[in-house]
Amino acid sequence: MHNGKVYLDCMPRQEAEALWQNALAAAGYFARLPAEEIAVEQALGRVTECAVYAVQSVPHYNGAAMDGIAVRAEDTFGATERQPKKLRVLPAGGPILPGTCCIVDTGDVLPPGANAVVMVEDVHFAEDYAEIAAAAAPWQHVRIIGEDIVQGEMIVPERHVIGPADIAALLAAGLERIKVIAKPRVAIIPTGTEIVASRRELAPGRILDINSPMLAAAVASWGAQPVRRKIVRDDRAALAQAVSASLDDCDMVITIAGTSAGTEDYTYSVMSELGQVLVHGVAIKPGKPVVLAVCRGKPVIGLPGYPVSAMLTAELFVRPVLLARQGLPTTPPKQVEAKLARQLFSTIGVEEYVRLSLGNVQGRIVAAPLARGAGLISSLTRARGLMAIPAESDGLAAGTAITVNLCCPELELERQILAVGSHDLALDLLGMHLRRHGGHILSCANVGSMGGIMAIRNNEAHLAGIHLLDDETGEYNLPFVRRLLAGHKCMVVHLARREQGLLVAPGNPKGIRSLADLTQPGIMYINRQRGSGTRMLLDYELRRLGIAAGQIQGYEKEVATHMAVAASIAGGAADAGLGIRAAAQALGLDFIPIANEQYDLILNFADDDERREEIIAVLRSDGYRREVEALGGYDASRAGTVLWVD
Ligand SMILES: Nc1nc2c(c(=O)[nH]1)N[C@H]1C(S)=C(S)[C@@H](COP(=O)(O)OP(=O)(O)OC[C@H]3O[C@@H](n4cnc5c(N)ncnc54)[C@H](O)[C@@H]3O)O[C@H]1N2
Ligand code: MOO
């Protein structure tokens, strides 16, 4: 049976946000913020409830700021190299009478009567006298009471986030405990009969609860206290009970999944029973079915179940409310202007969020869109930037100037290296070495060898891995580079020779021995995408053997990487696919060698860019070559040889 609410109204994001926040403000949610008193030493990252004032001055006594002697400045007036002043040295502690001094160390209390310190380097000691050859100014080298902080002075203002130095200043100013805003307690309720809490319970159709830990970490990073609840199965009463109990002891309730229009999606109806639903459905993608409600004066939000949707809607709606609840402003993310590397389509009427790789290529910041599925958690971890395609747009052409929100404010664009082209496991190793040595971060987009050459030509990548066999000459790569990149300043360096072959299930149950066997009935092939070097190799070999594509079952089924081919075979979706030996080795598959091909890198950097030298140095290092060969099926002995420069 259906639960009634079959379609969602889609409200513009700003309107939804305003509606929810205004309702919360009207309920007094952002006023009367609860506070608590905590030890100053535990206060890192906490927000002050009110301004904090010094209860004692710093320093709280007059003290020596240097090692030397404490003197009466007036006793030293007129001292010169020729006519030094002689002062009798008294035991430590003084009091200093006219014509006397005593030895002090940095930090010692200045003895009574003294009003200056002369550094030990400027004193000549003789018997029980100290001789000084220059006059001391009154209060020189003395730390005077209150010189740093005066009693009653403000140390930190209200609504201030306590940092490490604040802790020192507060302690110095005599405070041991301070009042801070209580961390908002945020209940996180995962829902769904298919959701399990641990890997041990995983089975087909079961999904590991990765959203709760992600959201708990996110709300903690926004200053709140996450309170994780048990998984609630798809049961209306159980969900109502869990939300109601959380409203008793938390300041905000987040439910995960069950937001859309499915038969077991109860979020909307439970929230309307417990309070008022202000929004169900926002014109954003992903994240459309988000539910925004106010129940018993507290925010309750139903996040869509797909991880990317859940994280985006949490950032858009949860974060500003939690910051406001702590009296903190929402600082906008840092932005950069960039050139969009690839065309992007979008639906009119929906604001679409796209995650991006970023890098500075030949003086211009390039943004390469990552894959867009709402379930692709890897698109969150790979993203360096986020952009929103406005609701009124149906897409953006490649090359469009766009504004990108940086995913992390410390992102150093000059450290990013964008790799586009054919995927190879050796690139992941290259990334690891670059990170270890120069702190450079390699981001890879797998678009095949031809896609890589085009990206270099358009200055949209720093590096492209290619393995393209020229039909006419039988030569790898350079014929294509000469033809397509003539006049473009770039360099081609060799990476490795590697074995390509057929990946088949362990033990080769179908008895496949060669490409010709792919035409046998009952054999399902899995192909690589057009434009990839592996696909070109297959087509070249098929032509040579006189086999037509139509004779191979599964020829039209394409995936984008060697590992995806291997995974399809390991999972039983296909019987054979062309790929590198390393991919077979990684997933324990059998391998039937077909060809030995040349894998090279095109490097697209200005001549003085240190990143290019860094890459070549890694390629030439014994450590890197050894690790590549350990992947299986590689000869990396000539890695780093320069093959072509334009
Ligand atoms: N007829 C319609 N179908 C759907 C609509 C719609 O408007 N009409 N919206 C689609 C959109 S958009 C999204 S987003 C999803 C939202 O789905 P729900 O919030 O109802 O979530 P579920 O369907 O239960 O789950 C979606 C997906 O996420 C997985 N999941 C759920 N919880 C977790 C968790 N804690 N950790 C990891 N993964 C989780 C769940 O297993 C599903 O695979 O609905 C579309 N359908
Ligand atoms: O809007 Mo859903 O969030 O597409 O994935």
UniProtKB/TrEMBL annotation:
Q: Name the InterPro entries for this protein.
A: MoaB/Mog-like_dom_sf, MoaB/Mog_dom, MoeA-like, MoeA_C_domain_IV, MoeA_C_domain_IV_sf, MoeA_linker/N, MoeA_linker/N_sf, PBP_domain
Enzyme class label: transferase
SMART domains, per database record: MoCF_biosynth
Query: Could you cite one Gene Ontology molecular function of this protein?
Result: metal ion binding
Superkingdom of the source species:
Bacteria
- In what pathway does it function? Cofactor biosynthesis; molybdopterin biosynthesis
Name one process (GO BP) from the record.
Mo-molybdopterin cofactor biosynthetic process
Record keywords, A-Z = Magnesium, Metal-binding, Molybdenum, Molybdenum cofactor biosynthesis, Transferase
Q: Which reaction does it catalyse?
A: adenylyl-molybdopterin + molybdate = Mo-molybdopterin + AMP + H(+)
Q: Give the matching SUPFAM superfamilies.
A: MoeA C-terminal domain-like, MoeA N-terminal region -like, Molybdenum cofactor biosynthesis proteins, Periplasmic binding protein-like II
A GO CC annotation recorded here is: cytosol
Required cofactor(s): Mg(2+)
MoaB/Mog domain boundaries: 187-324
- Signal peptide from the UniProt entry: none
EC numbers for this chain: 2.10.1.1
| Free-text function comment from the UniProt entry | Catalyzes the insertion of molybdate into adenylated molybdopterin with the concomitant release of AMP.
Protein family (similarity comment): Belongs to the MoeA family.
Name of protein? Molybdopterin molybdenumtransferase
Species of the source: Thermosinus carboxydivorans Nor1
Organism lineage: Bacteria, Bacillati, Bacillota, Negativicutes, Selenomonadales
